[in-house]
């Protein structure tokens, strides 16, 4: 029987390269060729063709670290298979982008910006309610995709971001809120259609090496938060090779000379993962029409009207816009102040006639406008906001055109590179860099015939991302959004308070307080499960009479048929009811309630998820009522 080394040597000989002449330029590799399987020899040949000899220069004689040498090719094989076009394409793309970066080439040369067309919604008006209904009906034909590849380290939290409590009144994490919202939307959509509809809405989660195992553990340990496991698909994103210099030489890991250093490629990989997974064709065969993308810590994302925070109340109305306007691409957006640090959705027209509607980063939009005949650059218009709405990275794509486009691109998204140079000569990097891509750049390759638009929601309703740690948030200039766990939770209470106020309840004005050196409005701590208030129409039907809630109050609603009919709340009320129970609350409910205690983020005696907020609740007194039996119930003074 031949040894493993003999078999490998035979494989090399079979390729007609037993002499290894092609490896003459790299003696360390040539000496070790007989260790490699035939596919590994081909990978080595590819690397040398791409001027990557340095990867092998340190390789010792055969017999030393042979397993690590083979392990090196295991990694190369993964990097080659996970990138559209393989490592050759990656290296060639890198060379071009690095050359453009060194030359200072403007990616928008030849383009003139203008304001694109889209839909601006006013929460709660007849048009909004009509679009909500259209969107709920369409939801059964949709699939949801969550981009959740990040840890919470930037927030000061060691776990995965989707495991963080969305708010601490109930302690429900972001992932639980998203799943419960999708399930409520699924049920409402089928109920609207009737005819025995039992459609299950697919839910895809894109993870990374950092988050994959923890995400699966969170799902499995919580029975998928009520969703059928078959509805959930996990797609793991691979990292890409780092680049050491302007020649696109791949960087070796400083801690392991047999590994190529890797870093995340960006959330744009979600498109290639969906394409290669076969899910898009499966959804097409199921006659689905829409794919909705969102990111991992916008607490408003699925709130009754919207949010990265409340996005679900936004989802029905925005999906309604896509359906009624016939958008192939619909970007959710918020009003944006000129020069605010959020990208602007812009129509770009090239001198050759090409057009596209895409996100332009805020630090590129102002100089682009100034260079194309707008002396004031990115300036507010008569509305008090920039005419270029703020992109919040929530996308609704029409499935059919999306599949056709990905057949051409295989999901490859326009990339960029952002090296940090040691000096103005731009000849060396401070540290390795890599190519990156963004989910929202998908429209860059679309033909001019593609219908690309946007839907603008009020900021309080749709956008409250949680991404900054307490120290960074405290440095944000006064008046600008903190985008922290503190501001994110308070934004949920504000949104819910304003929604109930719009529905007819009297909600007390907030007080201003400071947590972790962030000055925020503190509204009544109001929260509800998605099955109580999926749309504004749902909520308005359940708020009757002259209900009022004081500023110091907390209200938690868990149940479908709970009605506020003249409730006068001054304290804390928690209501839990089975779906078959109809519960009416009238009259006063008063108790000592929950008080807010300040917490220093440096206080290691508190949990991380509390420290990053800067506050916790002291549960002094509350009224908690549970209705476990069907029928009509009431609670009154």
TrEMBL record:
Known catalytic reactions: a monosaccharide 1-phosphate + UTP + H(+) = a UDP-monosaccharide + diphosphate
InterPro entries documented for this protein: Nucleotide-diphossugar_trans (IPR029044), UDP-sugar_pyrophosphorylase (IPR039741), UDPGP_fam (IPR002618)
E.C. number(s) listed in UniProt: 2.7.7.64
Gene3D superfamilies: 2.160.10.30, Spore Coat Polysaccharide Biosynthesis Protein SpsA, Chain A
Cofactor(s) of this protein: Mg(2+); Mn(2+)
Keywords tagged on the record: Nucleotidyltransferase, Transferase
Any one Gene Ontology molecular-function term assigned to this protein's record: UTP-monosaccharide-1-phosphate uridylyltransferase activity
Pfam families found in the cross-reference section: UDPGP
Domain of life: Eukaryota
SUPFAM superfamilies membership: Nucleotide-diphospho-sugar transferases (SSF53448)
Function, as annotated: May function as the terminal enzyme of the myo-inositol oxidation (MIO) pathway. May also play a role in the salvage pathway for synthesis of nucleotide sugars.
Family per similarity comment: Belongs to the USP family.
Name of the featured protein: UDP-sugar pyrophosphorylase
Species this protein is from: Urochloa decumbens
Lineage: Eukaryota, Viridiplantae, Streptophyta, Embryophyta, Tracheophyta
């Amino acid at each position: 029987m031949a040894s493993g080394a003999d078999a490998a040597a035979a494989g090399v000989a079979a390729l007609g390269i037993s002499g290894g002449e092609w490896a003459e330029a790299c003696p360390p590799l040539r000496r070790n060729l007989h260790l490699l399987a035939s596919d590994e020899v081909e990978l080595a040949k590819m690397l040398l063709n791409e001027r990557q000899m340095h990867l092998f220069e340190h390789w010792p004689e055969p017999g030393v670290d042979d397993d690590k040498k083979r392990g090196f090719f295991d990694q190369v094989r993964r990097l080659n298979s996970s990138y559209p076009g393989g490592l050759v394409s990656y290296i060639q793309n890198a060379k071009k982008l690095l050359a453009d970066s060194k030359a200072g080439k403007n990616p928008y040369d030849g383009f003139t910006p203008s304001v694109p067309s889209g839909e601006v919604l006013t929460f709660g008006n007849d048009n909004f309610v009509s679009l909500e209904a259209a969107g709920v009906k369409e939801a059964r034909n949709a699939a949801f995709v969550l981009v959740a590849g990040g840890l919470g380290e930037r927030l000061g939290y060691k776990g995965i971001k989707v495991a963080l409590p969305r708010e601490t009144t109930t302690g429900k994490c972001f992932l639980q809120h998203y799943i419960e919202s999708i399930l409520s939307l699924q049920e409402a959509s089928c109920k609207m259609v009737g005819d025995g509809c039992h459609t299950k809405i697919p839910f895809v989660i894109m993870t990374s090496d950092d988050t994959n195992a923890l995400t699966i553990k969170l799902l499995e340990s919580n029975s998928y938060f009520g969703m059928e496991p078959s509805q959930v698909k996990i797609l793991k994103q691979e990292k890409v090779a780092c680049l050491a210099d302007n020649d696109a030489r791949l960087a070796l890991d400083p801690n392991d000379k047999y590994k190529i250093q890797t870093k995340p490629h960006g959330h744009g990989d979600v498109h290639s993962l969906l394409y290669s997974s076969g899910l898009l064709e499966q959804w097409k065969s199921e006659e689905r029409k829409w794919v909705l993308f969102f990111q991992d810590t916008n607490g408003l994302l699925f709130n009754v009207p919207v949010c990265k925070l409340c996005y679900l109340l936004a989802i029905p109305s925005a999906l309604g816009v896509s359906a009624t306007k016939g958008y192939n691409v619909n970007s959710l957006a918020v009003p944006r102040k000129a020069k605010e640090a959020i990208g602007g959705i812009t129509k770009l027209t090239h001198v050759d006639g090409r057009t596209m509607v895409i996100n332009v980063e805020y630090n590129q939009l102002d100089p682009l406008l100034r260079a194309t005949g707008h002396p004031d650059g990115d300036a507010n218009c008569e509305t008090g906001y920039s005419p270029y709405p703020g992109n919040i990275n929530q996308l609704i794509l029409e499935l059919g055109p999306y599949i056709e486009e990905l057949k051409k691109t295989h999901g490859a998204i326009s990339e960029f590179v952002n090296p940090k140079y040691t000096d103005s000569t731009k000849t060396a990097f401070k540290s390795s860099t890599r190519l990156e891509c963004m989910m929202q750049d998908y429209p860059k390759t679309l033909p001019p015939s593609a219908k690309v638009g946007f839907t603008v929601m009020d900021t309080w309703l749709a956008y409250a991302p949680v991404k900054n740690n307490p120290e960074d948030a405290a440095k944000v200039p006064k008046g600008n959004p903190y985008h922290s766990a503190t501001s994110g939770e308070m934004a949920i209470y504000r949104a819910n308070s304003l929604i109930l106020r719009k529905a007819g309840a009297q909600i007390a004005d907030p007080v201003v307080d400071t947590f972790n050196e962030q000055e925020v409005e503190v509204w009544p701590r109001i929260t509800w499960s998605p099955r109580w208030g999926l749309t504004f129409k749902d909520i308005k039907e359940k708020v009757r009479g002259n209900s009022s809630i004081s500023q110091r109050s907390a209200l938690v609603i868990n149940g479908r048929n709970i009605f506020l009919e003249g409730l006068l709340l001054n304290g804390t009320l928690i209501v839990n009811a089975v779906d078959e129970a109809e519960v009416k609350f009238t009259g006063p409910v008063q108790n000592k309630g929950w008080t807010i205690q300040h917490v220093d983020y440096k206080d290691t005696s508190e949990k991380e998820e509390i420290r990053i907020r800067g506050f916790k609740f002291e549960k002094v007194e509350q009224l908690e009522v549970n209705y476990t039996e069907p029928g009509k119930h009431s609670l009154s003074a």
